[in-house]
Amino acid sequence: MFGYYMQLALASFRRNPGLTSLMIFAIALGIAVCMITLTSYRAAANNPAGERGEILFSPSLDSWDPENAYDKDDKSLAPNQLTYRDAKALYASEIPDRKIITYKTGDIYTRPDKGMDPHYIGTRMTSRDFFAMFEVPFLHGGPWDAKADEGPEPVIVLSKEENEKAFGGENSVGKTLFWKGREFRVVGVLDHWEPMPKYFDVNNGAFQDMEGAYVPFAWGPILELGSHGNTNCWKTEIIDSFQAFLNSECIWFSAWVELRTADKQQAFKEFMDNYVIDQKKHGRFPRPLNNYLYDVDGWMKRNKVVQDDNKAMLIMAFAFLAVCLVNTVGLLLAKFLNAAPIAGVRRALGASRRDIFWQHLTESGVVALAGGIVGGILGVLGIWALRAWYGRFVEEATRVLPFDEKNFVIVVAIAVCAGLLAGLYPAWRIGRAAPASYLKVQ
Amino acid sequence: MLSMTNVSKVFRTDLIETHALRNFSLEVKAGEFLAVTGPSGSGKTTFLNIAGLLEPYESGSYKLDGIEVTDLSDDARSKLRNEKIGFIFQSFNLMPDLNVYDNIDVPLRYRRMKAAERHERITNALEIVGLAARMKHIPAQLSGGQQQRVAIARAIAGDPKLIMADEPTGNLDSLMARQVMDLLEKINGMGTTVIMVTHDPELARRAHRNVQVVDGQITDFKPYEVRGATPATASMGA
Ligand SMILES: Nc1ncnc2c1ncn2[C@@H]1O[C@H](COP(=O)(O)OP(=O)(O)OP(=O)(O)O)[C@@H](O)[C@H]1O
Ligand SMILES: [Mg+2]
User: Of A190, A254, A379, B33, which alpha carbon lies 20 to 30 A from A12's?
Assistant: First the structure.
């Protein structure tokens, strides 16, 4: 019978192409808007650290201006980066299971042996635990050892993409790159790695590109590598050298610690507070004691990776879909009732209420299927258009929810369910109509 | 074939109650050709709709082919209607967007018949009404008489025991009306019971038996003897 209902649905579309297109378009529009909004929302709300997000913490110390809170909108917040001195002090703690301090820099690299066009590589200064803490996948080699952090030794880890550019994708472990007049030895090559959002560095933008190279943190002061991310200062200080800059109250470093037990978390928080209390004796930290230890989720919330706007947009998008569906209910009802005399004749010829119900529900389903497919295509086009207009953010965001066949099928399935839902009442209504009243002589 | 005893039907609106049928009793024998006449608004169509299981009724009992239908579910009624009854309407009531073949297919589909059997029955029915050459036409491409013959083919395709026709010639000129009447007699001759509502006394006279409905009741019982023949032989002679 289903095949017959399908046939009838198609015949009905041919009879009424205008109204049918309107319904398809209504569903398609609702689906497309939801798809686009959901994409950016999912991208922002994603927690790429998974369960490990509960034992990874980013410390935040209120080293800011006594006159002005760091965040004017939420005065209770402490700054989201650290000064060099504080970062080093936290890094010195023995409490964490793992720890890193990090910032973002970058420069022109060359390859000494054979011709590689010198080019800029965004570079992350960090320490060896970085790779284990954030579960960074390696293709070749591995992290540098602890000795290399201290030395520091001229070692470098390349991203998969950078390794392709510099070494044509071959195993480059042991080869060297020239940077700042020094030879850096490749110890590891990453597999493609792109957590979304880039949770360990959200203050520089949750959807920023990944760095192409990783180098021991201690090279920063030696090579006088400034930050290529955000730097914020509040104090009037004389900064006439890189060393003076490092000793200033300017913040441009992040720290992350892995604390696997509640005891350690407690102990580290106390360590932070004690450190600040001690620093106050030296005339620093003029504000009241106000330190935080954020887990990954808390860190992303504190940095508003998912903005209230995103949530409001998402609710609006689903409300819009609901409006589209209500409209579809109305259109279906009008269409079905318009053809009620024909349903009456079918009843006279032996169709039961159930037959009439399923026939019309099938028609709703086919409309919804078409709406889903059109909506899916509109959604993809919409995301492309957004990319063209707004550039990278959307592009990055869509990478979390790529529109492969599976997602497309899901979108269409959602549309069909929505369409069936919209068709339930009209199909039921038409099934209840008394056939005799439609069979009268016209 | 059909037996109604004291069936009552009331249409209620906010303002008025219309007693469309009052203690309506009628018996129709298998193989009979019955003509139902009566003034407009007397309840003829209401009777056909109730007899055709398209409309509920307030009280009384109704047996169709020996089955008491009063308390049947919608599914059971629909099945019964599909298997035992063929409808013919004054305004043809063909599906405008289906061709002749697919129109005749409709009742067979609801009987969940296999494609091969449906095909055989459709071509058979078209043969009987003489429209085999028009099976790909849509209703709008046919004359009124042809449309009514398609409707007749649709009514008989499922091989029902009972044909109910509500003024089947009402929208046709006299020549076409006669053709349709000939067809109904032919079908009746093949053993199908026919109940036909008509305003045309000439057509009514061709039936085995006439009953008149006035004010929701049968007024004049005229037994078969009026025509002086048994149903089957009467139709053969026509
Ligand atoms: N759906 C309805 N609602 C209210 N009253 C109705 C309804 N259908 C029929 N009636 C009333 O019931 C009575 C019988 O109607 P019915 O259609 O059976 O008459 P009829 O004998 O077929 O008339 P005609 O010869 O004009 O077709 C009429 O008075 C009519 O107004
Ligand atoms: Mg009538």
Answer: A379
Is the CB of A349 less than 8 angstroms away from the CB of B52?
no
ipTM of the complex: 0.89
Residue B104 to chain A, least CA–CA distance (Å) = 10
- Residue A284: exposure state from Cβ atoms within 10 A (0-12, 13-18, ≥19): middle
DSSP reduced 3-state for A312 = helix
pLDDT exceeds cutoff 60 at A391: no
pLDDT band at A437, cuts 50/70/90? confident
> Considering Cα of A152, then A155, then A161, then A166, what sign does the dihedral take?
positive
Sequence ranges of the domains in chain B: 32-53+84-228
pLDDT value, residue A303: 87
Q: Which residue, B60, B198, B9, is CA-closest to A436?
A: B9
Closest Cβ–Cβ partner in A4, A346, A441 for B90? A441
Which residue numbers in chain B have pLDDT < 70? 220-238
What was the pLDDT predicted at A341? 87
Concatenated DSSP letters of A139-165:
EEE----HHHHHTT--EEEE-HHHHHH
CATH code that applies to domain B32-53+84-228: 3.40.50.300
Q: B206: which residues sit within 8 A by CB, 6+ positions away?
A: B33, B35, B181, B185, B238
Q: How far apart are CA B135 and CA B152, in angstroms?
A: 14
Q: How close B24 comes to chain A (CA, Å)?
A: 19
Mean pLDDT score, A374-401: 69
**Sheet arrangement for strand B17-28:** B17-28, B2-12, B59-64, B67-68
**pLDDT at A407 (0 to 100):** 67
Would you say the CB of residue B40 lies under 6 angstroms from ligand 1?
Answer: yes
State residue A251's pLDDT score: 94
Nearest to B122 by CA among B94, B85, B159: B159
From chain A residues 332-351, the ones with a CB under 8 A of any chain B CB are 341-342, 345-351
DSSP strands (E only) in A71-118: 98-110
**How many of the other CB atoms lie within 10 Å of CB of A321?**
24
